[in-house]
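Collaborator request, handled under Task 6.
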Amino acid sequence: MDIIHLLSDHIANQIAAGEVVQRPSSVVKELLENAIDAQATSIKLIIKDSGKTLVQVIDDGQGMSITDCRMCFERHATSKISQSDDLYAIRTMGFRGEALASIAAVAQVEVRTRREADELGTQLRIEGSEFLGQEPISTAKGTNMLVRNIFFNVPARRKFLKSNSVEMKHILDEFQKVALAYPEIAFELHHNDIEMYKLVAENLPKRIVDLFGKNYRQQLAHCEEATPYVSISGFVGKPESAKKTRGDQYFFINRRFVKSNYLHHAITTAFEGTIAEGYHPFYVLNIDIDPSHIDINIHPQKTEIKFDDERAVYGILRSAVRQAIGVYNLTPSIDFESDINFGNLTNRPLPEKKPSAFERSGSSIQNFERKEPSQWKPLYEGLESAANRQESTGHISLSSKANKTAEQQAEDQDFKPETEEVDAIQIHLKYLVLQVKSGMLLIDQKAAWERILFEQYLKNLQNKSGASQQLLFQKTLELDPASFALAQELKTEIHALGFAFEIFGKSSLIIHGIPAELNDDDGAKILKDLIAQYKENETELNLNKVQNLAQSLSKRAAGKQMKVMDKREIRAMINRLFESSLPNYTPDGQKVMKIIPLAEIAELISKSNGF
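Structure tokens returned to the collaborator:
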């Protein structure tokens, strides 16, 4: 018997939905892009339960006829292209004709639409690719699309949706991308009947400030370059506004958001020497190019793109960003009193790259291995006398917890000091050096505090017992809508860490208490950083809520412990480190300490003596 057969339209649509509709934010993206293609001047997005219950988009665009309203849910039905040559002249957001059919295959969809020339509009209902009915209706000009209960008929897909805060973050990302690409269109966003954004039609800098906050007003530098091949326009952030976390980088090709590590590298090289390693600049840039020079028909999500001359785009983009940096005095100014060959000015090397904080200390493990042996000698001064010292000034407890594995206990023994009465030397306020039986032990002070504080915060969250210190003067913290919603969701857990705050207005918190170990001046910033780190961990790591909060706060608070410590404080810190469940690693798996064996030390010394 023959075994090959055609799939039904319903199954084919569900397969396509696996590529097009990955989560509620995918629905948001497709519906917003359809509204833009319909030439809407005002778009309203309504979300319930982070899109799991409802995604609704209302626009004042062209609307659809009765026939078009029915046809738009068929596979490969589109008004954007009609022949193969059109694929190389695409200016619309959509063109594949798959989105609505895929959405209708995994959700309950209702659409109400009317063209300006029609007296009555039409209402259509479709559920799991099954047509339920269509009838005339009185409705406003434009289209009102409602998508309910996504993945209602694919429970396995619905089960893999993330928490409401994660799904809402993805929705906000898609909303911001579209709103940035089209600042001349008015947008609204409502979540669970709460207005999160109401953006009026404006220019791009005003749209950036409306989306990301007033702090961005003084951080923007205009970037513009026009060539016969491409035109670049938009804004880059000043180096001082660069952040450790990524997420504020937006590339648009003909107003379509794309992801390109290659083009991102062009911008980071343009900023090289002005921002520290590990930091990421803010930018919102649109590249306008003839569609015949690009190919966007690579992936259903349409976020990948190919250029026929990628190197030219790279060079022009880097040059445009460098020029923006120079015009706004973001790089060191030219010394006109020095002897400069202005004819070769464009070939001047970039300023020397700023080292990271770890590199600035001059004491990283890599630097220890690279430095001349003569520079090692001061590190050993006094260690022998410290090891033989008889007077007791306290000792380090290395007792392992009962729940440690045998492997962990064995590894801890490798780091055990030669004697219980030992002193450690603090260098550059960042590292500790002490003697162990196999050689010399180096401890990264910040990494050690990450491990110590992580276990402290984890215990506080589990027991809801975090100590809090009251602020003499309350502080107001302004948050973006996504961070504000997350702070509301995590309010109980954040209080358990020692923060005390109240909701104020639509996007502000009044802070009147912070964890006892934090400085008064750092409390508000630490809370803001905590929420940002939590969102980053939630997207990239598989952590539960308690672990995420403990890890996020320990990472942010550890930097505040980089200070001069006396011998008593050093011993207490090392004591707490070795009493932790896993002292050798930070919560995210980075090394806390390293042993330099005696043989390696001897080899370094012998080389310096010419043996």
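The cover message to the collaborator said: "The longest strand covers residues 468-478. The radius of gyration is 30 Å. Please let us know whether this matches your experimental observations."
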